[in-house]
Each structure stands twice: as C-alpha cells, then as structure tokens.
Specification:
GO terms for molecular function: ATP binding. Belongs to the ABC transporter superfamily. It is found in: Cell membrane. This is ABC transporter ATP-binding protein. The chain is α/β, with parallel strands linked by helices. The chain has 2 domains: about 5-90 and about 175-275, P-loop containing nucleotide triphosphate hydrolases (Rossmann fold, 3-Layer(aba) Sandwich); about 100-175, no CATH class. The chain is built from 12 helices and 12 strands. The protein has helices at about 45-55, 80-90, 110-120, 125-140, 145-150, 160-170, 190-205, 215-220, 240-245, 250-255, 295-300, 325-329, and strands at about 5-15, 20-30, 35-40, 65-70, 75, 95, 175-180, 210-215, 225-230, 235-240, 305-310, 315. The strands form 2 sheets. The chain has an 8-stranded mixed β-sheet with strand order 6-7-8-3-9-10-12-11, sandwiched between helices. The longest helix has 18 residues, at about 190-205. The two termini are about 40 Å apart. The structure holds iron/sulfur cluster and magnesium ion (MG). Iron/sulfur cluster binds next to loops. Magnesium ion (MG) binds near residues 47 and 48.
C-alpha cells in the first residue's frame, strides 16, 4: 500500500514558564492511500499537536518540532519552505479543525471563497465551479445553499461556518485529509451526513484520512486502523475490529468500557478514574500508572516501550513485556 503520510518519532515540545513540555514525545503514525486512521485519546494527550505539527501549523502555539520526521508522499515536509507548504495545504493536504484555524476570509462572500478553491484545484470554469460549490454546500447539509453562496461569513452561525470549512476542504479532492474533531460541535444528523461525505471522498478519490477524535462511535464507523495516544505517546495501535474486540492497554480498555455508538465521547466516560497527568506531575515510569488498576512495581520505575504484541498490534505496557529483564537494568 502506498504511504501518504509518514510521521516518524515526532517530538513537539512547548517551551513554557516551567521548562519544556513534551506535548508529543516520539510519535509514529502512518496513513496509507485510501485508509482512515483514527487517533484517539482524551484532551491533552497530544492528538491535536500531532496534527498541527503534520500540517506545520504550530506558529500560533508555543510549540516547536524538536525531532523526528514528517513525510507526505515520500517528501519531507520539514524541509519545505513556508510557501511550498502553503501550496500543499488546502490542495493535496486539506484539513478540518473544530475551531477553524484557517478561518474563512471575512471580506469575501462564501461562494467566492469556495469557487476560488475549486477553480484552482479542479480547473473548472466559473459556471461549473459555482455549480460544484452549491452542490458541496448542499452535501454538508446547509439549507438554502443557493443563497448562502452570496452571504459573508459573519452572516452564518458557527456551525454553518464549520460546514462551509468542511465543504471547502473536501471540494478539492485532497490526497490527504487531516480532520481534528471535525463534527464534535455539530448535531448528530449533520454529523452522520458529514461522516458519509468523508467516506465518499475516501471511496471515490482514495483519500487518506487521519481522523482525530474523542468519539469512539466515530472511530468504529469510520476507521480502518486506530492509534491510541496517552500523555504525548502512542500506547496502542491496531485495526479497528481488534481494538474493540481485544484491546490490550489498560487505558484503551478503559476507553472502550462501553459499547461504542455515535456521540460516545471519551471525555464523558467515567470508566477511568483520575486525569491525564500535567507536565508538573508526570510520572517517572508508565505515564498511565497513577490511573491504572494493574500497576506493578516496574510500572512506577520505567516507562515501557511500544512493542509488537501480535501481527498488526502494538502496545506500550509491562503486562505484555518482560518485567524482570527491565528491573535488572
Ligand atoms: Fe498499567 Fe503498568 Fe501497563 Fe502502565 S505499564 S498501563 S501502569 S500495567
Ligand atoms: Mg484537541
């Protein structure tokens, strides 16, 4: 399978008042052509920082890529100029954020912005671009698309603007779509519609999708593979069926404590006690130890590695590794 996005050993650090915060600490994620990879975990686990790093959009954060590599179609993104990067974004690489980072331009009408993106990327003439724009607005569930096209962003509600952003990201048939909580703020019907759209895009255009979400129902419906993140690290990775049928990491088991359905937000699960550690109280060993019912001596002393536990399954947990050897070191 053809690799579209390869994030390898990514380290993104924040320089705060109290020193360095390792928001992303050695994360590796690959997304192949036509594949949807879910990245799941609670807030503060480094999911969004991983996606912002991949799009090289850290400038509004105190973050900085301190190590590792990010490749798109084999090209190193970290070596591109800002201008080259801008050409990739919104073209071959598109993104959808819950709080649109690249918000709509307030001085242009919705239609103009959408049509320009479509003309640029799909090479349609003006008339065809307008028809496509209206179609896209209808597909993301916007009523009176023919009118909205003549309105300015401020005339729309936040939820409507979010859908315009989604239409814009999908209108250009990107090769890679990075979606960070794309539907969280929307109602369930619209949410289902937008997930359908993303599936269509993947099936018709072989788009690779990295889908960052709290929502285990969305993961179950959309993803081929799932990466579970905790405290800036990947703690488990496998295909979606295995994840739900045979989760290995105690954190994943906690997340999947109930049957996933659309709208099942991991933030609201009470199956895991305690909270994600803050940088100030980051445990020395396994970062999950303070919340883990299985924690052993070794867990408090050393952080386990992410190791293969099965074909197509990796897990970062001492329950699956040689503890005695670890304690000798
Ligand atoms: Fe729990 Fe230990 Fe596994 Fe960490 S390494 S998840 S503390 S059992
Ligand atoms: Mg986030």
């Amino acid at each position: 399978s053809e690799k579209m996005l390869e994030i390898e050993d990514l380290k993104t650090y924040f320089h705060g008042d109290d020193g360095i915060v390792k928001a992303v600490d050695g994360v590796t994620i690959t997304v192949n052509k036509g594949e949807t990879v879910g990245v799941v975990g609670e807030s503060g686990c480094g999911k969004s920082v991983t996606s912002l790093s991949a799009m090289r959009l850290l400038h509004d954060t105190p973050g900085e890529i301190a190590g590792g590599s990010i490749k798109f179609e084999g090209k190193s993104l970290l070596d591109l100029s800002e201008k080259e990067m801008r050409q990739l974004r919104g073209n071959d690489m598109a993104m959808i954020f819950q709080e649109p980072m690249t918000s709509l331009n307030p001085v242009y009408k919705i239609g103009k912005q959408l049509e320009e993106a479509i003309r640029l990327h799909l090479k349609y003439d003006k008339k065809k671009a307008r028809q496509h724009a209206v179609k896209m607005l209808e597909m993301v569930g916007l009523p009176r698309a023919g009118e909205i096209i003549n309105e300015y962003p401020y005339q729309l509600s936040g939820g409507m603007r979010q859908r315009v952003m989604i239409a814009m990201a999908m209108a250009c048939n990107p090769k890679l779509l990075i979606a960070d909580e794309p539907t969280t703020a929307l109602d369930v019907t619209i949410q289902a519609q937008i997930l359908d759209l993303m599936r269509d895009l993947r099936d018709k255009s072989d788009t690779a999708i990295m889908l960052i979400t709290h929502d285990l129902g969305v993961v179950a419906e959309m993803c081929d593979r799932v990466v579970v993140m905790y405290a800036g690290k990947v703690v488990e990775e496998t295909d979606v069926n295995t994840l739900y049928e045979n989760p290995q990491h105690p954190y994943t088991k906690g997340l999947i404590g109930s049957v996933p359905k659309l709208g099942q937000d991991v933030e609201k699960l009470d199956s895991i006690r305690g909270n994600v550690p803050t940088p100030a109280n980051m445990p020395k060993g396994c970062k999950f130890a303070p919340r883990c019912d299985f924690a052993m001596d070794v867990c408090w002393k050393r952080d386990p590695d992410l190791l293969k536990t099965d074909d197509n399954h990796t897990c970062r947990c001492w329950l699956y590794q040689d503890q005695e050897k670890a304690l000798e070191v």
